[in-house]
Amino acid sequence: MSAGPPASTPPASTPPAWALTLADEVRAGRRSALEIVEAHLQAIERHDAELHAFLTVLGDAARAAAAEVDRQVADGTDPGPLAGVPVALKDNLCTRGQATSCASRILAGWLPPYDATVVERLRSAGAVVVGKTNLDEFAMGSSTESSAFGPTRNPHDLGRVPGGSSGGSAAAVAAGLVPLALGSDTGGSIRQPAALCGVVGMKPTYGAVSRYGLVAFASSLDQIGPLARSVADAAVLFDVIAGHDERDSTSLPEGPAPCLPALGRGVQGLRVGLVDELVGAEGMDPAVQERVRQAAEALAAAGAQVQPVSVPELRVALPAYYLLAPAEASSNLSRYDGVRYGLRVEGDTVEVMNGATRAAGFGAEVKRRIMLGTYALSAGYYDAYYGQAQKVRTIILAALDAAYGHVDVLLGATTPTAAFALGAKVDDPLAMYLNDVCTIPSNLAGHPAISVPFGTDAAGLPVGVQVLAPALGEPTMFQVAAALEAAAPAVPAPQVDATSTSGVGR
């Protein structure tokens, strides 16, 4: 019996690629997809009460999909490069006939009539969707504490946040509940929780992955990307979901070259810029700075040409983002009016009903950003705020393009600190927003970036380092990420680790 050609495998020097290994075993007929999915569903049932990573578990649908993968293998058909691999989806990705809430009460009971393009591509590749994960409401947050359904906890320390807004996806992967997950990244919402949870998280070039079926936060910034325990698994997941989609008007006609084959190329001769502003950003923990310096040294030892780079324009990325993103959010969220979606609070007039619905359905952070955005777009203030922020965005893009004229990739911290305590910043929006100071520049520029675990801080919590690349530079970015992963100091196993108790394997 032939299950098709074997999936590409990562270089031997990298950590085990959990998803690729499972897919190879299923495609070769050595394990059944149904057995693998059942083990992961049991792991979720056993451990998720501690984490609250999932909002919905799709057990029956997952079992049916796994059985179909096994049928294809038995018939000699190749199910695809992710055959039988369980995947979790951030709950702002539409799934036909299955609840998609964006962790907001205003979408209570909404069942999308279609699948997001990335969901279609996952299923075509043989992956099995096992559930929808928790997030900050409408992806607005950095800790997954603004979810209307309660916070997710960090598997490494249950008293700490997993980051956000894709905290549920990051926690699920870190705890071993799934090998792969998808998140969305508007200002760092994949990379920041990846760093805090000790996993790999990647934001693609804007337009490289279709946004069709992603519930919009800020449409010029949003991108969908992978979370995984290894660089190789993140690369294969990205390769599966990337590519042109005519249903997304911002989709690039041609995406980057496949990234998985780039992982074994090494970094000999590559030029790496260590960015001053991404090492000395406001609030940066000295332990995080030291890990970034060690990462630079590791790349130099592997043959890269590492040099300091200064991009002072990055210091104004945060204020520009917190004008642009709320402005776009205030426009996108105007559609939730009590008529077309989810929640409806009755009133004597349409205006009263609309206002009551939005007051009851949106949480505090979403209301804050709607008000900020509406103010920035209002008559008399548009040019001073939104217009000026757009000019700053153009300046940041030009400055990054200039930097890439001298280096192939940039290196810096992903977050200023490791995971902070639950509740520590919920009452201080400015402190919360500063968590994204290192990730926002790539979103403003539309460039790809990836966070790779690189040791821990003084408290033993994971630290992530970030590799940034120019538009469509994903293969080189993954190439550097693989070298960092091979040299990275170990990160201790999390407190909640299903791989040690549930038979799901790494």
Break the fold down into its secondary structure elements and pairings.
Elements: H1 18-27, H2 33-51, E1 54-57, H3 59-74, E2 86-90, H4 117-124, E3 128-133, H5 167-174, E4 180-185, H6 191-197, E5 200-203, E6 223-228, H7 231-241, E7 271-275, H8 286-301, E8 305-309, H9 317-332, H10 350-361, H11 364-377, H12 383-403, E9 409-413, H13 429-433, H14 440-445, E10 449-456, E11 462-468, H15 474-487
Parallel strand pairs: 2-3, 2-4, 7-8, 7-9
Antiparallel strand pairs: 1-3, 4-6, 5-6, 5-10, 9-11, 10-11
Structure description:
The chain is of the alpha/beta class and 506 residues long. The chain folds into two domains: 18-314 and 393-500, Amidase signature (AS) domain (Amidase signature (AS) enzymes, Alpha-Beta Complex), CATH 3.90.1300; 318-391, no CATH class. It contains 15 helices and eleven strands. The protein has an eleven-stranded mixed sheet, sandwiched between helices. α9 (317-332) packs across α12 (383-403). The longest helix is centred in the last third of the chain and has 21 residues, at 383-403. The chain starts with 17 loop residues before the first helix and ends in a 19-residue tail after the last helix. The relative contact order is 0.15.
Key terms:
506 residues; alpha/beta; Amidase signature (AS) enzymes; 2 domains; 11-stranded mixed sheet; 15 helices; 11 strands; disordered N terminus
